[in-house]
User: What shape does this take?
Amino acid sequence: MTTIGSADASPAVHIVEAFYAALADRDLPTALTRLGDSVVWHEAAGMPYEGPEPYRGAQQVAEHVLARITADVDQLTLTNREVIGLGTTVACLGAYTGTARHSRRQFTLPYLHVWTVTGGRITEFRQYTDTATYKAILR
Assistant: This one.
């Protein structure tokens, strides 16, 4: 994960950036420690990893989101172009890049991630991205 344009030194921003850094290092256990025990994880509507309800807890996020993305995409990279801290809320504008395993198609897809950090842990995640394009790339 690369972060460009993070000018905020708030604790919430540091926690979110540590989550991205752990993902970039392929260190899932460390990434999951940044999530609160009752984190609420909202996948973008239409994503193949979206559940009928938001996921709750680090274990559900690991099983239903992170493991499935890893199975679908080789060399996934998340690059934050701008990180905006607003108290306990952090917004990250960036792009996913990678290669879909099934189709072998390379992609770059913009995203907005909105995080809530409470008590030193990530307590909520909301994802916004072009889900139709992502699903088409995977086929």
Observations:
- The beta strands are 2-3, 35-42, 55-56, 73-86, 89-100, 106-118, 121-129.
- The helical segments are 11-24, 28-33, 58-72, 131-138.
- Confidence is low (pLDDT under 50) at residues 1-5.
